Predict the structure.
Amino acid sequence: MLDALTLDQIRMFVTVAEAGSFRSGATRLLRAQSAVSHAIANLENQLNVSLFDRSGHRPTLTTAGLALLEDARAVLLKVDFMRARARGLVNGVEIELSLVVDTLYPLPLVADALMELRRTLPSVRLRLAVEPLGGPLQAVRDKRCDLAIMAGEDFLDPRIETEALQAVPIVAVAAASHALARRRKSLTSVDMVDHLQIVLVDPTALSEGRDFGVLSPQTMRVGTQDAKRALILAGMGWGRLPLWVVERDLADRQLVRLATAAFGPLGVAHTQTYLARRTDRALGVAAIALRDILHRAAANKLAAHNRSTAKAMGTRQTADHPGNMPNLPPKR
């Protein structure tokens, strides 16, 4: 009967298959070879199949053995996962951790952070949502997430604790074929208002009656950042997007940066991001670990930026040093 199957038998089967012989498998398991051989023979009887061909010098997996090996590995993985989750419950580790991230925040950084967390706490189920504008704050308010990453200071709440992460550069862009992209001079606000601006719509009521970074009275409102980028690439209008989203498009010259002082020097504005949580809910082990990972990533990003800035300034100072000036003819 299948009910007589044991985890011990399944683990022995997988170990022998991976080791290549009963002797090597028994050594890995710290068991007697006879005990391992007997356990696998019983497993074969219970499954009514031959898992190994023993006619040669070394046992080889049969066709049935190859097929069932993946099932056996999956069973052991599930059991190990269940044990890890049980240990987590005893130690206060959450079963699930939910994170809501503003669309402006670099998703590659989020992916790196979540992968590092999963390596440390593999039993924790992870949920990720990406929402614009007031979405992350509303998710924290509604207790739909444990942590959120918000952008800017337009959505603050005294009941929500925030911790600064890093600033994200936002650039004004248009398709290379767009009329604004063909302008050779610095653009003014007057130049921008004559053209359709693609803007994100807030899924919440938090920004009702307010616009952020909208210059043109002609707007097309979209629900996702992907839609916004696609429409800008198509030449439908211009808009502002995080630099991390459009770096490749700019490098490939599909998009052009619009240098307008209305959004900062060379059309670049830096939006500060914050990690947010409710003050009335204590963070669990996984949430604290993720918070620490995100803060480390922000610190590393800032350090890299400072090194780059210092290097650029050093290069400029070297170029401007009198000792590096070309030889000029004497004044007459």
Notes: The radius of gyration is 30 Å.
